[in-house]
Write the structure tokens for this entry.
Amino acid sequence: MERLNFQGLRRFWAIAKAYWWSDEKWRARGLLLLIVVLLLGYTGLSVVLNSQRGELISALSAKDEARFWQTVVVFIGILVVYAPLLAGYTYLRDRLGLEWRRWLTDRFVSRYFSDRAFYRINQFQTEIDNPDQRIAEDVRSFTQESLTLVLVVASSVLEIAAFSGVLWGISRELVLFLIGYAIVGTILTVGVFGKPLVRLNFEQLKREADFRFGLVRIRENAEAIAFYQGENQESTQVQNRFMRAFDNYKRLLKWQLGLNGLTNAYEFIPFVLPALVVAPAVFSGDLEVGKVSEAQGAFIRVFFSLNVIVDRFQALTAFGAGIDRLHDFATSLGQLEHKKDAADLLATESDTEATPASAIAAAEVETPAAPDPPVEATATVPMQPVIVQETAPQLSLHHLTLQTPNYQRTLIEDLTLELATDSSLLVAGPSGCGKSSLLRAIAGLWNSGAGVIQRPELKDLLFLPQKPYMILGSLREQLRYPDPEADITDEQMHDVLKTVNLPDLAERFGGFDAEEEWGDVLSLGEQQRLSFARVLLHCPRYAVLDEATSALDRHNEAQLYEALEATSTTYLSVGHHESLEAHHRWLLRLAEDHTWQLQTLKST
């Protein structure tokens, strides 16, 4: 892990600048300007309050009642203005942080779901662990903590400027001592504790996320674990994940112990030194007693402003670890979309300001490129062949050779076929021969290999996996998925549910607006029938079914395919049941030796 240095600042700015130059830049900058104005106001009032506190003590020491009450009135008047200023500053700071988080979260979520980056990261970039935590927790920390830290630094600079004048008028020696003391303390803290704390905080974030993910997996797979009676193994794994986080946190606590010992001793001196320096002048009568309080207050404000790094070092190291995780995540998304850096990744088209000349130059440089290389490919690795994807009215494969994403195994070799409109194809073969992988290639999820795949646009295809995906939402949203705006009436949904042999599903749960954990309350067979209902409702040009009826009996399977045959949808199925042959016109049989055979099952 990198120390808190210029690389950390560059990583921070690479992510941060996108918002401050985005389409919301003027609103953000306006809020920031208002925050700075409030910061200036309450810093100035802080100086006056510190002075009046000294006046109050001097008046008491001199037993000057009129001066005392006059100071009290001024003190209360300043507080009346100071309190709302500070409250307004805190509110606007947090509000700006919240707006920034909304904008940055929206950008990360958009990029995460763009070009199926979520799938590619999960499959091919496993070093990017727990993207959910990076979007939810690290973005929150980045926006809110960075804004707080920047304003703390700005406040520190203002307080140094304001209170140094007060302190200089009382004792120049105190000012010079403060500067030297702050420099030595900062260098010592960063030099000794910087690198270990950043590394340990980074690792703690990762291990805590792994522990939480393990618990989530148990919740999502509770029934399977119960059937297998795997409680002991799952409990052991969860305990091991926790102990990894526990052991790392113990190491972190040891370094924090050393840091806290240093900072506690380091921060003790402001409470003693001002009185020691000013005392001789007070004893000689050159200064009033209140000047001791005033000098101590100014000294403490300047001291902690100069030592903002030492004072907030633990928060800074945790923040630095979060920046690293977020930057790595942004970079991985950028690599998937072939962007240059995190800033390019997060900027939208409306955010990018280019002159006409630069736009023309860019257009001249960019020529039609070959299909995107695999995610694993880098500049130092020879370019691997990739499958070309082309848009066409119907699905066809031309000399397709399909390999695993790491190019270590060939699954299918030199496959050529065409699936005409209103036709159907069954893909069969032994396990591991590449049946489901062929569907991934058609969907564009895999591109390792050679040849050409021509297909309609993805919006005209609907894929049904073997394990149906049940979204979080109502029954109506389940049936309309993946197009929530589809013009489908309740009557149509009732009819289709009858067709897939789920006639009472809506009534059983209280109507189409009922929201349940559908993956838990429905059996796998019911989920597959519900998933099939989506095909019948949306009527896509092509449907691709990966063992989509594997959990059904032959009667229900036949009923679903007969309903599908009655539509205008062209479909491709993967399956093991011989009974499926009765519902398809063509059979593609794959073999373990990469060969294939195409057979006619029934005439058109």
Remarks:
- Residues 65-113 form the longest helix (49 residues).
